[in-house]
Amino acid sequence: MPVIRLSQSLGSVALLVFSTLSSAQADKADVVSSLNSDYERYQSIAEALWSSPELGYLEVESTRLLQSALEEEGFSLEKGVAGMPTAFTATYGTSGPIIGILGEYDALPGMSQAAVPYEEPMLDGAPGQACGHHLFGTASLAAAIAVKNWLVDSGTPGTIRYYGTPAEEGGSGKVYMVRAGLFNDVDAVISWHAGDANTANPGTNLATISGKFRFSGRSSHAAAAPERGRSALDGVEAMNDMVNMLREHTTEPTRIHYVITDGGNAPNIVPKTAEVYYVIRHEDVDEVRSVWDRVVRTAEGAAIGTETEMEYEIIGGTYPRLPNETLAGVLHSNLSMVGGVEYSEDDVAFAREIQGTLPGQLPAIESAGEVQPMVFTKGKASADTGDVSWNVPMAAMRAATWVPGTPAHSWQAVAAGGTAIGYKGMMVAAKTLALSAMDLYKKPEMLKKAKSEFDDRTGPEFRYSALLGDRAPALDYRR
């Protein structure tokens, strides 16, 4: 696995973009104006996704809505790609560079929340858009359509492709699309994510392997005949105890999370079945594999010690993101041009109430209107965009769709994502992606530079191998 090398000089890329910006100013102004005029259309789509959130690989209506909007715009669709019924690609154009834009739309379990500044689930236990994927999928859609219209109007040769990517939250949907070769002909991919600030930073995050461990025992009356039972839950708990001891003997960036997804049905019945769901993270792919193997051995030992049977299934696996500062510079230049999110008085009032529910020292509300300097980052989260970045030059940005200081996967993120704060941030992302794609079509030297950087970072010996192996998509992992 090659070491990710991070340059300390970022200025040359931004200067290259800005140096020729004036000649394209009118085109960019027209594209921004068109996106402004279509604000209500895209707000309506995002609101529909937010109001009816769907879990990974179950995003039937979400996918249908996005596909319909793209078909109306003349895109050619391939549906159900890479063995995933809710995955698709939408392509416009047959010549010139191919630029890919990623779109996500899956929600998170148990995160239902109304668009109010206090905790209030709309339906207890239901899903919610706690990572802003309704905004993600819609902004990318808006950008792809705006770029398509500009290609047609300007006569510029180029192809724009929207990737409808399901099950980012633990399902590794993009990995299967990479494995199926759906990015093989792409020159560059640009993407974004919801956030609490406006940034376009090159950087890394953590690789992952996730999986479910299932123990099988023998049921019996827990009081009258306990000696006849063999508790599958004991197997899960013994495994968890050993993993928690293992934590002391892992390298510093290692992260291990688990949740018991099946612990039995009644305390007076020795549980016949039990299941625990694990996620392992580390910045290095080889170390993730090593820690995963050690976790598997704890499960094997737990089964021996509790006289139960154990089987496991790898659910997902993702690479750390490979930075591309060339493409990040293009995104940052255009994000700086677009600017941040402008709050109304009502937005400010909502934001103040949200910040009142968050702990610690928080950024100023006004920071949502600012674009942060471009710096290298080392994130602690993970995403299946990592696998894309190791197969094609890719960069991503963030827009302030949440109140500053809001963490992802929180009710506060769901709440803001259903308000004007979320929709305004979404349009910042749509404009930035569209303008950045325009630069890449008009400046082939940027694509060449991005590819050269990609080749340098991956190295001549690198061969991609998916961390989830050759398994088929885990279509039922959220059922």
Automatic annotation (TrEMBL):
Keywords associated with the record: Hydrolase, Signal
Domain annotation Peptidase M20 dimerisation: ranges: 209-300
Gene3D superfamilies per UniProt: 3.30.70.360, Zn peptidases (3.40.630.10)
Any Pfam family the entry gives: M20_dimer
Superkingdom, natural source: Bacteria
Leader sequence segment: 1-26
Protein name (record): Amidohydrolase
